[in-house]
Write a structure and sequence with these properties.
It is a single chain. By secondary structure, the chain is of the alpha/beta class. The protein has one domain: Rossmann fold, CATH 3.40.50. Helix content is about 25%, strand content about 25%. The chain is built from 4 helices and 8 strands. The protein has a 6-stranded parallel sheet with strand order 2-5-1-6-7-8, covered by helices on one side. It has a two-stranded antiparallel sheet with strand order 3-4. A hairpin with a 4-residue loop joins strand 3 and strand 4. Helix 1 packs across helix 4. It starts with a strand and ends with a helix.
Length: about 160
Amino acid sequence: MKVFGVVGWKNSGKTGLMERLVDELSARGFSVSTIKHAHHTFDVDHEGKDSFRHRTAGAQEVLLTSRTRWALMHELRDAPEASLEHLLSKLSPVDLVLVEGFKRDDHAKIECHRAETGNGLLAGEDETVVAVASNAAPSAETPVFDLNDTKNIADFVVNFTGLAK
């Protein structure tokens, strides 16, 4: 499985780019999965639901299934946060895993940048950032794409990861 990341500061356009890349690459016939890192506590089930009750009762893992999908929730309790490598091992094989976040990990990434956020670039400080997608024209030593130029960004990802056939 190939792995490629999308990173950037808050409100830089990461999720939108992820969504467009999944759509574009899937339309090209590639199988794509995603991993999204959250910097906050989140819940995928809700109080009162059976899965929530199982989890809060102390279950280490709760697998929720139906005829259309299944989801596995794993409680860390007091254990350390799972590494990207460990999480990747949990996925079924696909052509490409797009990773949103995990900006300190050692995989190739494209940085999303919006001028109006006032944040500087990670590119230049981080050699794993191999390209920038921006709504401005920042000076970078890596390729710079228009943030909304999904086709050319997807071409770059396909070529960079070696998915090009």
